[in-house]
Input
Amino acid sequence: MKIICIGRNYAEHIKELSNERPKDPVVFIKPDSAVLPKEQDFYIPEFSEDIHYEVEVLIRIKKVGKHIDPKFAHKYYDEIGLGIDFTARDLQAALKEKGLPWEKAKGFDGAAVIGKWVPKTEFKDLKNLHFTLKKNDSVVQDGNTAQMLWPIDELIGYVSTFFTLKKGDVLFTGTPAGVGRVSPNDYLSGSLEGKELLRIKIK
Ligand code: ZN
Output
């Protein structure tokens, strides 16, 4: 199973990190070892002083596909979820500055939190899904898939021109504004259309 992630898919988040708006989606991969085991706490790794949460809408791929036409992309997934793309922002900034790959900052153990899956038929419009992340008791990220620069089906089309998608692969579709640091004893809880799909404790 692979985890394909999209960066810079929400204009307000591009602004908060002073990044350029990309011509094409920014794509990176996390290894399967990055998945935080279910019910496990997230431990801040010793190599970073600045771990950020990024809440994202997730798509679970249900069959093999390559060069998928966005018109038919909906046939390749039945489930929607919510996850956290944990990022060692200090390490990422140092790598970015040198023009080096981000993998160490995004693909470390535990850096991919995958919440509960929901059948897509439970939602009226995938282009209008409201989601939030709470840190302790305050909402820190509040997004809607309507704000994506590239909607879900276009992302699937785009990434499948480079990578064959396989059953069980997970697509992280990018984060809205409001990313920030976690500290020991914080807890994070993510909700999609008002339903809590993930809750984790930081250690
Ligand atoms: Zn992200």
DSSP finds four helices and 14 strands in the chain.
